[in-house]
Design goal:
This is Iron-containing redox enzyme family protein. This protein is mainly alpha-helical. Helix content is about 70%, strand content about 0%.
């Protein structure tokens, strides 16, 4: 990696050229492998990298963070903590991807739904770890809310109900549906999918970015139910077995509860602590919004290409 690679991947204006796509893909693939190593099981402790010791990773991260901050229009940031709850609700309501959700529910083929399921794997397959990381250092009602979220991710103590177990069951089924159509699941991965996964991993792993992490996770929880509803409706329409969509069906209502609790007991109390905290939480929210919008647009293009 060179400074030229970084300049190509993060230009002043994001021009959709092949060179930009290639550069971003390689950088985000490198980041994702690095972040995934931090979440390795205990028995692999010797290969877990140490924080802030790899100059290549540090350069990618700082360039990316600076670039993302430059994409945020300062006028979109709420001026005071009192404005935050209404600001967040409005932004979240506009972030539900209505057209995309309608397509999932009413028009997508089984191959298209399968592609989307697998695109979600890099985030959904790690979401319990992201919630666990968000708990670190929290106290009081905030810790209880995040802890309840984590307990739900753990299937409330039942191994077969753990959300990552349920999701992997769905992913196996969908991977088979793609294979039946001669489509390699590895072809799903593009720079936007890696970027979507890397953002929450970077925020969660680096403790100084925890305000951005809880902001991004709060937006994800608050805006997810319509998407899960659409996935359930689309799968039901196509005759997907009920056990394959258990994960999605659970999240229709669970995430509604989590989203409200994160706003009331995590995000709002945090932004009330200082103007600096307000800014950091909101930057995490707005950056997640931008990255997710780009992700959904690109995945939708890939889905339609299967027709």
């Amino acid at each position: 990696m060179t400074s030229t690679d970084l300049a190509i991947a993060f230009p002043t204006g994001l021009v959709p050229t092949a060179a930009v796509e290639t550069a971003r893909f390689e950088l985000f693939r490198t980041l994702h492998a690095h972040y995934a190593a931090y979440l390795s099981p205990p028995e692999d402790f010797q290969r877990i990298p140490r924080l802030n010791t790899d100059p290549e990773i540090a350069a990618i991260e700082q360039t990316w963070l600076d670039w993302e901050d430059a994409q945020v229009d300062p006028e979109r940031l709420p001026k005071t903590a009192a404005e935050f709850p209404d600001w967040f609700r409005a932004l979240s309501a506009n972030h539900v991807q209505e057209e995309f959700c309608r397509y999932l529910a009413e028009d997508a083929t089984i191959a298209e739904l399968a592609l989307f399921f697998l695109a979600e794997e890099l985030v959904d397959g790690r979401f319990d770890d992201l919630v666990a990381l968000a708990q670190l250092g929290s106290t009081g009602a905030m810790k209880l809310v995040i802890g309840e979220n984590y307990w739900d991710e753990m299937g409330q103590g039942a191994l077969e109900r753990m959300h990552t177990v349920l999701f992997e069951h769905s992913a196996r089924y969908m991977r088979e549906r793609l294979a039946e159509r001669g489509y390699d699941a590895g072809q799903v991965i593009c720079s936007e999918i890696f970027e979507n996964a890397c953002l929450t991993l970077m925020y969660g792993i680096h403790r100084h970015l925890i305000p951005r992490s809880v902001g991004a996770l709060g937006l994800m929880e608050h805006s997810a139910p319509p998407r899960f509803t659409a996935m359930v409706e689309g799968c039901t329409r196509l005759g997907v077995p009920e056990d394959v969509i258990t994960y999605q069906r659970i999240h229709v209502h669970v995430d509604e509860d989590h989203g409200a609790e994160w706003l009331d007991h995590v995000l709002t109390p945090l932004v009330e602590t200082s103007p600096a905290m307000l800014r950091e939480v909101c930057l995490g929210i707005l950056t997640r919004e931008r990255v997710a919008n780009a992700y959904y647009q690109r995945v939708w293009q890939q889905m339609k290409a299967l027709r």
